[in-house]
Amino acid sequence: MSTSHKLVCHKYDKNPSKGKIKLQTITNRKATYKTLATIDFKNWSDKKEIVLSGEPSFEKINQKIKEALLKAQTEKVYGCKIDKLIDYSEKRINSIYSYNTRRSKTNALNKLKEFRREFKKFQDINRDFTRSFYNYMQEHHAAGTAREYFVVIKYFIKEAVDEKVIEVEGDPFKNVTKRIPKTRYQVINDTELKKFLGHTFEDENRNLTQHSFKFMMFAAGMRISDFLHLTWNNFTEIHERMNIRFKMKKTGNIKETKLTLKALESLVPFLRNYNQFDLNTYHYYKKRAEKASNDLRAWRQESSQIDPDGFISVDLLNNYSQNAYIKFQEDSEKHSAKVKVKKDLDAKIETMEQLLPQVQQDVYKYLASSIKSIKTDYSTERVYPFLRGLKGNNLIRETRKRATKNNYFLNEMRKELNIKNPLSNHQARHVFAQRLFEAGANFHDISIELGHKSLAVTENYRKQISSEKSKDVVQIFTQSLDL
């Protein structure tokens, strides 16, 4: 659609000495006119498109027609409502903070532009247009992608109508699409998760990817976009507990999360290249904690196998033979020995239950002190090694590439370990959320930890990832009462 503008002066039919200055707009070979002023026809220069000095107030008239021409040349001319919608959508997309959200909506808008170029017959936004666009999407994309793009365009149409950018008659979406049930997210199960986290990968890329997944999972389901933008300055210590405080890339909100020992341990591959961290010292504290934990587990198992009440009382043996009574005395002596062993084990268990948290706290304190030392000297440096030293566009480009590479490595590791469920960066977030839902955690607390803007988003999450194990409110209420 080509559009041109020009200033012209037409003579009056009844009075040829007078003329009307008009703004001529030609669109698709059709001309429209807008009257701007009336002058003596002889005072108009058609070549220069100005009013000559012989006309009274010629300067004001020239200023007026010049502004009208400039406005027409800079103002976007729409051929139809669909063009208005496209222009409005572009402005909305440019105002979106998150790069990933902006990119996904841009992809949907590009499909609308592609459809517009191919089917120029549609001028209005009605049911025929929306049905044809949806069918076009289904022909060129998978069902899920087609529906995703259609939902984006549907959102822009509704927003444009609300802001009175365009007007539509009736509901252009009524019965356009059949309701497609949402597929549930496939979340990795406990067996597969333990297999993945327990495996040792020698390759540096895979090792870092594995520990990135682990950190995101234990750091309240952090998104990969937020993790890759972390610097050591995001780590803070509050009341002897390490926290991370960062600005979420998707929403722009500030998020603060407490870090557990598991979360800090997953950062070891990212710490070992710094002089402030000594791997041998860490292994010393780690082995102490592992030995204490293993001993406690073994003692509990051994103690549970000893039954101090597994013998017949003496009163019940009065009706039995002398041999049975002798047998009872022998068993009684063995029983007394086992009771003594159980008491010793219980004493050890009680002592170790008090000692284990202290030993684990030593590991936590060493990791926390190492992070604080690194933060002092390298506060603005990225946590992820491959992104250190990069700036500007190089950093933005490599950050996006790294997120894609991590997904690739996770998929390769999934195949290597024969894990059936999908494995991706975002799966860490799903694992975190699902375990909380299944444990019956407070719904509002889960929403805050996930960084959702509203509880409606969290509810949608729950529907998609909660399994049959999830506790309902009646079950939680029943367990809360001791009746």
From TrEMBL:
InterPro entries reported in the protein's UniProt record: CB, DNA_brk_join_enz, Integrase-like_cat_sf, Integrase_catalytic, Integrase_recombinase_N, SAM-like_dom, Tyrosine_recombinase_XerCD
Keyword hit for Cytoplasm: no
Keyword Repeat: no
Matching Pfam families: Phage_int_SAM_5, Phage_integrase
Domain annotation Tyr recombinase: ranges: 183-475
Alphabetic keyword roster: DNA integration, DNA recombination, DNA-binding
Domain Core-binding (CB): 83-161
SUPFAM superfamilies: DNA breaking-rejoining enzymes
Superkingdom, natural source: Bacteria
Similarity comment: family membership: Belongs to the 'phage' integrase family.
Record protein name field: Tyrosine-type recombinase/integrase
Organism expressing this protein natively: Christiangramia sediminicola
